[in-house]
Each structure stands twice: as structure tokens, then as C-alpha cells.
Write a structure and sequence with these properties.
Radius of gyration: 24 Å
Shape: globular
Structural class: alpha+beta
Number of domains: 1
Helix content: 10-25%
């Protein structure tokens, strides 16, 4: 089934003649003074699309020329943009930021304007790409770590690496590895910096007393603890319990794995702790206390670091939350709002409408993760008042149940909610994880008979958790993903971005429909354009609450599959991730293909054993992660135009457009993640079994740089994750 532009425009609530979505800000609230100058959409195309390695319907190449023109293709190690656009590097890993430094693997970006052409840029720093980070550290940071001793010990230890806790206190190697761990944790978390546009139109740092880092070690030695609100405090402040307690009460050391996020209508920033399970244990006991730190030991191996938080005694139940920061307050080091649940948070969308309860949407970015909604107990008075932050302290968290008839309900995660799980046979991969009782932690259930036995043993969520009313509610929120599985919330396909339009419609990017070790998506809900299950390339869903009420308990949903090759009905990209809807209702999108799939050679679509190459491995055809623009009005409404692609082995993240629509902020995460520093212009020529847009096969020879030298682009320079401001050379609006 081919992609249908009209269907897409109806899906987006737009038409080819006019925009029905209306302008919107990050919260869905209208913004004023949309444009400064005439928009470029008055012309036939808003810009000349970048030609990626794959033929696309919007590429302008006639069918008769696609095979010839794209028979040879050279990938560039740069942020490649259309003619007439440029980018300013705002900051890169290692730059001074407050009393620390710009961190690694920048992700979500938020720009809060304080005056025309100036404001605060808040940046998430997600994780460390260990091999490239270690190789680049001396050049970028300007000092050496004891890497030679560590690397020699790693090689001697073999594939299992070194458990740091198992080393004696007198062992010099232990101190060296802890030093290494502190440096790695310094490079994750959140950063706030002041920026402005100068007279030439370029963006630059303006520096202010609010410039600061909130890192993975904030509070460890400097007293800059994070705080928390909500029921999980009843667990954090326990003097004793079933599991590990860090004796810090309601104080929290640091934040890490900060992936996507969101910006509230009142100018604070929400930062999502995503893959925290790499740094601390994720499962907990029935009272919400953490598994012991040796359940996720600090291990240094050839593949990188594992259990970084455990190396410093962090309690696992204090990570995996949504963190709120006020960029304008230099004393604010973050608040974790536990009513929003503990899971692998990706983005967040805040819907704040006067005289209604506040709704906050977030997805759990894992295979089989859920979509969640928090509804405040109190009501919004003024959507732009910073008093709204108090609404996070009381309410209820719900998980989405999608029905095959395009309806859905919200399931409350509370003690009296019935245990009513879906069956493993209903999900891709045939496995669902459940709370493990009485031992604590989680267990994988792979047969319907075992799941039915589980459901017969436990009546309500209250049977799976324990403590006082407040502490039990806290334990359920701490264990939100597994509690939601028990309650029958729908397993989904890695929900990443969530964005609310002006009319209250929620748009969700589901990145990948394949199963994995955490589970898989529900087969009745997540199907490809031709009914395929599993389907790798991703979707966008829109969800509309009944009566457009933020507190509604029922909703309607609709799915649009955009990913895939044009010859197979897709738009020419795979794995949609972060979304941005600009002031004229047009959709911007970045992709999140795993680095291991970038430009992976596909010489034939048939494997050596005669089977078809998997959909996952076919992602090598798409090249680098990329940036896309899909207009919802004008003559090219519904077409996907490649606005650019990122440097080698990176993910493009955090698209955020300024209120005047003239600048697109982007983050380039982990350039050179696979091959590290590009040495002497190294590249490989690889073969790809491509298809024209009408499905005719041809072979492409593609020159693929090995590693990266971005953003300096100097020969043999270390790659550095960086944040850029994209703008037109003539100073006009983006489109």
C-alpha cells in the first residue's frame, strides 16, 4: 500500500490549501508573531531538498535517471543542509559551562526566550560512547586519564571486564577506575547556557550567572542535590526496607541518561531519564526499595562502562524519572516529580489549559514500553504561571490501553487497579515482563498459561506491592513499567517523542516495531502499511481525548506508517524519533537508526542461506540519520523533503524552533561512535542493492567515511558531540 498524501494531511488535521492545526508552542499553546518576513513557501519548493543515498518521491530525480544518478554516492562527514542555509556551533563537548564543562551526547534542546533573539538554551547529555570518549578525552579535555593501566587490565580480564567493587581498596587500579567513572558521570545530565543572536545573525553564547551543569555527580561532593515530589518520597525516606537504601533520605545525587524532554508553557524544562538501567539496577522489591548495587555492578570492559551509578552507591529507585529545571534560576538543580512515574522516559508533552486539570504525556522508550498520562489533582489557573509546577506534586498516573477498534482507555496505576495482563501470544516476540513475587525484581513470562496463572494469583496491584498507602503508591510508581504490564496496559513500539497540537491532539512517534529482550509491541495495534508484524521502520500516532478533555479516561487513536523505502510505500527514512511542529503547522522530524545500521552494506537482498535480508539490516540502505520537513499546506503538502543528514555515526536530536521561526536548534549526538576519530580521511566503498521509487533494482557504490572529525572538520581531529543553530543565510524564516 503506497503512501497517500491526502491521508497524511487528513491525519495531521491539515489540507493542501490551508493549515488546520494552527500555530503552536511546545505545550500546544498558540504563539504570537509567527513570522519575520515572507515565508519561502510562496515558491514552488521551500528549499532544494538534500539528496540522500535513497531515491525518494520528493527528490526531483526522474525515474529514468535515478539508477544512473545514484549509482555512485559519497557520504559526507558533516551536517549537510540545503543550499542557502548554514549552522553555528553553539557548544561542543569539553567547552566550559558554568563551573564544569559541556557534556557528551547532547540530546533534547529547549530554548526559552527572554527577549527578542536571546534566551536560555537547556541541553540534555544522555550517555557516554565509551570507546570514542576515552580515545578523544586527552585532546578535548586537555589532560590524561590513567587509560593505559586500565586498558591493559581490561585486555587481561577478557570479555567479562573488571568488576570494580571486587577490587581491594588498596588496589591502585580501583582508584583509577573510580576516577574514570567520575569523569564519565560529569559528562552526563543537563546543561543550561545563555545565548543570543549577534549583529551578523549568528548565534553565540552570551554567558550569565544561570549557566550551569547538573551532572551525574551533582551532590556527590558539592551539596548540589536534586530533590523530589510525590509518593516515592515515602520510599526514599524509609530508614529500612527489603532492599538497598542509600541513607540520603529525600536527597538525590545527580541525573543521567537524559534523553528527550519538553518545555512547559511557563518556561521550565522537563528532562527525561531514559536508559538508567545501564547505570543502576532497574527492578525493585515490592516495597519499592532498590535491588542491591551488586545487581548492576560497576564494570569496565572493552565495550565500555556498565553500572556507573552503582560504583558510587546510588540507589536505583532514584533514577528513571522526569526532572524539572527552571533555566532562569541559577540555584535550581532539578526536581524529580515522582507522580510522573519511573520508567525509561523519552519525551514529555504538557497540556495546560485554563480552568482544567493538567495532563502530562510521556512514553517509555523500550521495546514493549507504554504510553503514560499524568493528570493533576488541581486545576490550571494561568497556563504561563510558574505556580503550575506545584501541580506535579499531586494527581494520578495512567497507562494507555489501546483497543483494535481505534479506541482506548487510561488505566490508573493505583493499588485497587485489577491485575489483567495481556497474553504473550498477543505481542511480537511472545514475552511480557511481570513483577517477580515474592522475591522482588521482575520475571519474563513467555506462555499464556503462565500468564493466566499469574493473573489468578494476584487480584489487584495492591497484592503485588506493600507498605502504607503512600508508600505502596510510591512503590507502584517506582515500578511503573512492570505494574503497567500487570494492569494490562498495551505494549507498544518504542514511544519516543510526544507533542501536543493547539487543539489538544497528541502526536506520538513510535520508532521501531521489532521485539527485543524487554518485550515487543502488540500485534493488533502495531502493523506495517501492509499488515506486517513486526514492522521495523516506525509510525506516527495521533491520539484525541474524548471531548478534548485533558482529564478524559477514554480516547480515539489513529496510526500513520511513514517509515520505509518509497518502493514499499514509505517516505524514504526509517525510525522516526523527535518531532517538531512549527508555527505554521508543518512537521519536522529526525530519525534514530541504531549506529550499527548506518550505511551497513547490503550487496544483496538475499542472505547467503537463501533467506531474505531482515528489515532491520536493510536499514543500511538509508545511510546516516537525517532531518526531514513535511509541509502540511501549500503545493507540496504531504511530501517528505530531506532537510539534511548528520555527521558520520551520529544521531540528530532535539529539534527546537525559535518563536520567530528563523532558527532550528539541533544536537548531533555521538559522531564517530563506531570508528572513533577519522584518520587520514579513511573511508570504505560499499555496495547496496537499492530500488528506484517504482521498485526497479540497481546497485549503488557508496563511499562511507570511517569515523568522524566533526564539528571542527579538521583532518584527524577528535569528534565532539555538539549543538548547532541552523538558519538561512539571508536571515529569513526557515521556510
Amino acid at each position: 500500500m503506497g503512501f497517500n498524501r491526502r491521508q497524511f494531511l487528513m491525519f495531521m488535521g491539515a489540507t493542501a490549501g490551508a493549515t488546520a492545526l494552527g500555530p503552536l508552542g511546545r505545550s500546544g499553546e498558540p504563539v504570537a508573531d509567527l513570522f519575520q518576513g515572507a515565508p519561502a513557501l510562496a515558491s514552488s519548493l521551500p528549499f532544494e531538498p538534500v539528496q540522500g543515498p535513497m531515491p525518494v518521491l520528493s527528490g526531483g530525480l526522474p525515474l529514468t535517471e535515478q539508477a544512473q544518478r545514484l549509482g555512485q554516492y559519497a557520504v559526507r562527514d558533516d551536517l549537510v543542509l540545503p543550499s542557502g542555509y548554514t549552522y553555528d556551533v553553539i557548544g561542543a563537548w569539553g567547552d566550559t559551562l558554568g563551573d564544569s564543562r559541556f557534556g557528551y551526547n547532547n540530546d533534547y534542546l529547549s530554548f526559552v526566550e527572554t527577549a527578542p533573539s536571546e534566551g536560555y538554551l537547556t541541553i540534555n547529555f544522555e550517555y557516554i560512547s565509551a570507546a570514542t570518549w576515552m580515545a578523544s578525552y586527552p585532546e578535548v579535555i586537555g589532560r590524561n586519564l590513567p587509560l593505559e593501566d586500565i586498558q591493559a587490565a581490561i585486555e587481561a580480564a577478557g570479555e567479562d571486564g573488571i568488576d570494580v567493587a571486587g577490587l581491594s581498596e588498596s588496589n591502585r587500579l580501583k582508584a583509577q577506575m573510580l576516577e574514570l567513572g567520575k569523569e564519565a558521570l560529569t559528562d552526563v545530565g543537563i546543561g543550561v547556557l545563555a545565548i543570543r543572536r549577534n549583529e551578523s545573525g549568528a548565534w553565540e553564547r552570551s554567558f550569565s550567572e544561570s549557566d550551569r551543569r547538573i551532572s551525574g555527580i551533582s551532590g556527590l561532593t558539592d551539596g548540589r542535590y536534586l530533590t523530589a515530589t510525590g509518593p516515592a518520597l515515602a520510599v526514599f525516606t524509609k530508614a529500612s526496607g527489603q532492599g538497598y537504601i542509600d541513607d540520603l533520605s529525600d536527597n538525590i545525587i545527580g541525573t543521567f541518561n537524559n534523553c528527550a524532554g519538553g518545555t512547559t508553557p511557563w518556561g521550565t524544562v522537563m528532562s527525561a531519564e531514559e536508559n538508567f538501567q545501564n547505570y543502576v539496577p532497574e527492578p525493585v522489591y515490592s516495597d519499592g526499595t532498590s535491588l542491591p548495587i551488586d545487581a548492576k555492578p560497576f564494570v569496565v570492559s572493552a565495550d565500555g562502562f556498565d553500572g556507573l551509578g552503582s560504583g558510587f552507591g546510588y540507589a536505583g529507585n532514584k533514577y528513571g524519572w522526569m526532572v524539572e529545571v527552571d533555566p532562569a534560576n541559577p540555584s535550581d538543580y532539578g526536581v524529580k516529580h515522582t507522580w510522573l512515574g519511573r520508567f525509561r522516559h523519552e519525551a514529555v508533552a504538557v497540556r495546560a489549559v485554563a480552568d482544567r486539570k493538567m495532563a502530562v504525556y510521556s512514553g517509555c522508550d523500550r521495546r514493549g514500553g507504554h504510553l503514560y498520562k499524568f493528570v493533576s489533582a488541581g486545576t490550571v489557573i494561568n497556563p504561563t504561571s510558574k505556580a503550575n509546577s506545584e501541580l506535579f506534586a499531586d494527581g494520578m498516573l495512567y497507562a494507555a490501553k489501546f483497543n483494535a477498534d481505534d479506541t482506548g482507555t487510561w488505566i490508573p496505576l493505583q493499588a485497587d487497579t485489577p491485575v489483567a495482563p495481556d497474553m504473550p501470544s498477543q505481542v511480537a516476540g511472545g514475552m511480557i515482563t511481570m513483577p517477580n513475587r515474592p522475591d522482588g525484581g521482575m520475571m519474563k513470562i513467555e506462555t499464556d498459561a503462565d500468564m493466566q496463572a499469574f493473573a489468578q494469583q494476584y487480584s489487584t496491584l495492591g497484592d503485588l506491592y506493600e507498605g502504607s498507602a503512600a508508600a505502596m503508591q510510591g512503590a507502584i510508581l517506582i515500578d511503573a513499567h512492570f505494574a503497567a504490564n500487570a494492569a494490562g496496559a498495551t505494549n507498544t513500539a518504542r514511544p519516543e517523542d510526544t507533542d501536543v497540537a493547539a487543539d489538544g491532539t497528541l502526536f506520538i512517534a513510535f520508532t521501531s516495531g521489532g521485539p527485543g529482550g524487554d518485550g515487543g509491541p502488540h500485534n493488533d495495534i502495531f502493523q506495517g502499511p501492509n499488515g506486517e508484524t513486526p514492522y521495523e521502520h516506525g509510525w506516527i500516532m495521533k491520539l484525541q481525548e474524548s471531548d478534548s478533555d485533558p482529564a478524559a479516561m477514554t480516547f480515539q487513536w489513529e496510526m500513520m506508517g511513514l517509515g520505509g523505502e518509497p518502493a514499499e510505500g514509505g517516505l524514504g527514512f526509517s525510525n522516526p524519533d523527535n518531532l517538531e511542529i512549527d508555527g505554521n503547522g508543518h512537521l519536522w522530524m529526525v530519525t534514530d537508526m541504531s549506529t550499527s545500521k548506518h550505511n551497513r552494506e547490503v550487496p544483496s537482498r538475499m542472505a547467503a542461506d537463501g533467506s531474505a535480508v531482515s528489515q532491520s539490516n536493510l536499514r543500511g540502505l538509508f545511510g546516516n540519520n537525517s532531518v526531514w520537513f513535511i509541509p502540511t499546506s501549500g503545493p507540496h503538502a504531504g511530501e517528505a523533503l530531506m532537510f539534511g543528514y548528520g555527521p558520520m555515526e551520529c544521531e540528530m536530536c532535539g529539534p527546537f524552533i525559535t518563536p520567530d521561526q528563523s532558527t532550528l536548534f539541533l544536537a548531533a549526538q555521538h559522531p564517530g561512535e563506531t570508528h572513533g576519530i577519522r584518520t587520514s580521511g579513511a573511508f570504505e566503498t560499499r555496495k547496496f542493492a537499492m530500488k528506484t521509487t517504482d521498485g526497479q533494482p540497481f546497485t549503488q557504490e557508496r563511499n562511507v567515511p570511517l569515523g568522524s572529525n566533526w564539528p571542527s572538520k579538521q583532518p584527524n581531529a577528535a569528534p565532539r558531540p555538539a549543538v548547532v543553530a541552523v538558519r538561512k543565510l539571508d536571515g529569513g524564516t526557515l521556510v
